[in-house]
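subagent[fold] <- orchestrator: predict structure for attached chain, return C-alpha cells only, no commentary.
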Amino acid sequence: MATTKRRRRRRSRGRRKAAPMLAVFVLIVLILAGVMFAFLYEKYSPSKERMSWNTYFEVTASDEAAVILNDQMMDFKARIIDGEPYVTTDTLYDYLNSRFYWDSQENLLLYTTPTELITASVGSNTYTVAKQSCMEDYTPVKVDGDTAYVALKYIQKYTGLTYELMTDEVNRVNIKTEFGTAETVTVKKNGNVRYRAGIKSPILTDVSKGDTLYVLEETEDVGDWTKVRTSNGFIGYIRNKYLGQKGEETTESNYTEPEYTNISKDYIINMAWHQVTNGDANSKVLETIANTKGLTTISPTWFFLKDDDGNIDSLASQTYVNYCHQNNIEVWALVEDITHKDTITDYEILSRTSSRQRLVSNLIAKAIEFDLDGINIDFEYINEDSAKGYVEFLRELSIMCRLNGIILSVDNYRPADHNRFYNREEQGVVADYLIIMGYDEHYAGSEEAGSVASINWVREGIEETLKEVPAEKVINAVPFYTRLWEERPKTAEELAQESDTDDYVPNVVSSKAYGMDTIDKILATNGAEKTWDETTGQYYAEYVADGKTYKVWLEEEESIALKAALIKEYNLAGISAWKLGFERQDIWDTILKYVN
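subagent[fold] -> orchestrator:
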C-alpha cells in the first residue's frame, strides 16, 4: 500500500514537471506558426502601399501637368496657363506637328497649309490666316523668358489631336495623335492598378466594377497581369482575375489633312542645268540647245542669294525664255546659295520670317516677270541649325508656286546620315519634283581618287530616296563631267609636318573636272588605254607624267546608259545632267533610249 502511494506521488511530481515543458513546447510551436504565418502573409498577401500621385506623375509645381501621349508617360511636362494646357515649341515640333515653325527672333508661330500661311504673334488672342484676322478666347502663343508655349487648343485646329486635361489632385493631360481601333477590357470586380506587375508593387489607383480599361500589353513575362491605361491617366498593371469582357473602341481624327496638289508632267523629264555666270552667257542659249536632243527642261543658274535680308541677284533674260519656249523647252530657273557664300548666312536668311518671305516674294516676282515655268532650289550650304528654316522656306514658297502654277523642284544630295536634316520626306510632300544630285561620290576635296558616280553608288542613292519620296516625283541627275585625278608622292618636308596621329597618306591628291571630248583628248595625248571597270560601271584609265600618276573614271555613252536605265527600272520622273557644254552630242541619243 505504501509502495503504491509512493508511486502515485512520483507520477504526480512527473506530471507537474512535464506540464511546464509541454506548455513551453506548445508556446514555441505557436510562435513558430505565427512567424511562419506572418512570413507567408507578408509574402503572399497584396501590399496596401499606395504610390503618391505626385511621385508617379513627377509633378512638382502647381502650373505643371504630366503628359500622357498615345498611352506613354512622357518625360516632358505641359504647363497650365489661364486654365489651358500649353506645350513648348520643341515639344510641338518633335512630338505633335512638325509643320509648325517657331520664329524665335521675330516671336511668330507659323503654320502652312497647301494654300495658306497662318501666323500667330506672341501674347495676342488674334492670328492671321492668309492675312485675314481671326480671334480666339485664349492666347495661342505665350513666352516665358526664352521658352515659348503653344496652347493645345490652338495646335488642335491644325493637327489630328485630342486631349483631356485632368486636375484632380495632380495636373495631367492625356493626348492622342494616333487614331483607330484600341483594345479595351471591362473590370468585373473592384480592384487595383499597380505600378508594376506584382502584388507587392504600390497601388496607383482603384478601379470599380464596370470601369473600362485600355489594354496596352499582354505578355507571358508578367504572368497573370495585364498592362493597362485607366481613364484617369494611370498606366500600370492589373491582375487578370479582375478583368472581364474584352472589347474595342474606335476613335477618329478630329482633323482632315489638306491635300497637297502638285504639278506632274505626263512625260519623262529630260532636263539639264545651264551654268550662266554673266549676262553675256544668255546669248548662247540657241547654240546650247541646238547641241541637245529631246531636251524638255533647262535650268539656267540665274538667281543668287545676295544678302541676309532675302534679296537676290538676277541674270534672268526674257529673250532666253522666249527662245526656249519656241523650242518647246521649259525653263526652271535655279536659285543658289553658293556664289555669295562668304557674305551671306543661310541661317539668318531662312530663320527669320521677314527675310524668308522677302526671298519668296522676290523669286515669285521674277518667275512671273519672266514667264518662268518653274523654280529650281539649289541650296548646298544648309546645316542642322538652318534646316528647319530651310524646310519652312520650301513650304512657304510652295504655297506661292501652287497658287501661280509654277513648278517647284529642289536639288538634294544623295541621302546620307550627315544630311538627313534636309527632310526629303517633307520636301516630297510640298515640292513638285526632287532632284538627286547623283554625283560627287568623289569630289574636288576628296583625299583619295575615285569615281564621280559609280553605278552602285547611284543606285543606292535612288533606293534611299524612294524610301521617303514617291518615284513619280524623283529626278536623278547624272554628271556630264569627269574628274582627272593627279597623285604625287609627298615630299620629305610634307611628311615631316604631319602629326603622329594623322592617318598615313603617301600622296597628295588633287583633281580637275573636264568635259567628255576634252578628257578623251588628254588620254589620247598621253597614250592612256581605257579598260572597262565592271564594279563602277565606267571605263578606267591612268598614266604617268612628270613623276605624277593620273587616274580617271570616265563618264561617256556606256556609263551614262547604265545610269539612264535606272530611270526606267525605278519608274522615276526623269533625268537631269550637270552641265550643258560638257557632253558629247551623241550622249543625247543614249539618253533618249531611256526617256523617250
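orchestrator: received. Logging for downstream: The chain has 15 helices and 33 strands. The first strand starts at residue 64 and ends at 69.
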